[in-house]
Design brief:
Elements (H helix, E strand, L loop, with lengths): L1 H6 L5 H12 L8 H13 L14 H10 L3 H14 L3 H9 L12 H4 L2 H12 L15 H6 L5
């Protein structure tokens, strides 16, 4: 990166470096100019020892999604931790970012005050997990009644 800073943008330093690395190490994969740019971006995003951070446990494809889709470092770290904890594919991570999974949290409820402990626990469990209906491709605000009346569930 020092060379690129010194020579300036447009001099294809990264492309030349990628070509040099592929020539020197023909058996290695992942040495494209684009990947080298991702590596530099990841090094800036997570400086210092990375082994103790959640991102170190993710596949490279997940890391590139975090770098491409999120600018805020705290959000990158949060989604990296969630991806490690929950597993899932790169597409699952991408969908979680698009649907702003971070919005999740315990909604306030009066279940403990109004229900027996057993019913309260059941109600909390039923309402705890968010439902994401992005696959329905609904553009306007809709209610459950609208979906049921439309014949979607028949």
């Amino acid at each position: 990166m020092d060379r690129q800073t010194g020579e300036g943008w447009g001099t294809r330093v990264i492309r030349r470096l990628a070509d040099d690395l592929r020539a020197e190490f023909p058996q290695m994969r992942g040495l494209s100019g684009r990947n080298l740019q991702y590596m530099a971006t990841a090094a800036r995003a997570w400086p210092g020892p990375i082994a103790q951070q959640a991102v170190a446990q993710l596949p490279w494809g997940h890391v590139t999604v975090l770098l491409d889709r999120l600018d805020d470092q705290a959000e990158r770290d949060w989604y990296a931790g969630a991806a490690v904890e929950n597993g899932g594919s790169r597409n699952v991570l991408l969908n979680q970012i698009k649907s702003q999974l971070r919005r999740e949290g315990a909604a306030p409820s009066n279940f403990p005050a109004r229900l027996t402990p057993e019913d309260s626990d059941l109600a909390q469990e039923l309402t705890r997990d968010p439902y994401v209906f992005d696959f329905l491709d609904i553009t306007a605000a809709s209610t459950e009644r609208d979906l049921l009346g439309s014949g979607f569930y028949r």
